[in-house]
Design goal:
single chain; tRNA processing; globular; alpha/beta; binds zinc ion
Amino acid sequence: MEPTNHHHNSAAGYSSASSSPPPRRSICPNCTRPQLVCLCKFLPSPPIATKTQIIILQHPHEAQHKLSTTPILTKCLLNATTIVNRRLKPGLSDLLDRSPTAVYLFPPTPHSSPPINISELDLTSSSSSDSNLVLIAFDGTWKHAKEMVRSSEEFLSRFARRICLDFDESVDGGTIFDSELILRKEPHGGCVSTMEAVARCLRVMEADGAEIELRLIGVLREMVRLQAGFLKPMNPRPKLVKMKNKSEREDEIR
Ligand SMILES: [Zn+2]
């Protein structure tokens, strides 16, 4: 286990990495994936426009994660924004500071009030206002995401409702994409990558949601396919294997 950092010093620890990444290996400047698994030709161009505004709260540790799907997701969607922080609070987002009609996506936990299943979300209740719905998702390990939700709920409770994907509650069920889209599951069943979770939500929230979901899942499939091919080369060179073992074998798609 890595040590837990209780100080809120993410700016000092991480901003330099994102502004000037060390050129240890060739990284595509557009999709931020290693050149060998560059996803650019699969990304929608132009990015997909949605009525929904998507905000992803990304844990600082996740911002360092090579297989995070969040950078790809924000490339695919015109209206998706990432906030790197451990919690949501006033002052981080002009949009959230205006208390928009919002939902935040998180599975049920033992002591939480039961969330609304995404398929039961009554979108008509938000159409009374002119502003569009905001979807908030959390990107982190299960443990980090729980912490982020817990410490953000006081702020979120002013304007946002908690929702879950329908399959969150089945501990063993997982999703129909398990075999293809998740390299390794988190301790709890039903955990999906941030990108897949947002795609599932947009299916319900957008008028042409089914097509948007298909396009996002298509990009995710390519990401997993490229990564799987990269992790299991036909004739692995010793140096490459050693590097992969160190840096990415423990990774998983999130
Ligand atoms: Zn690229």
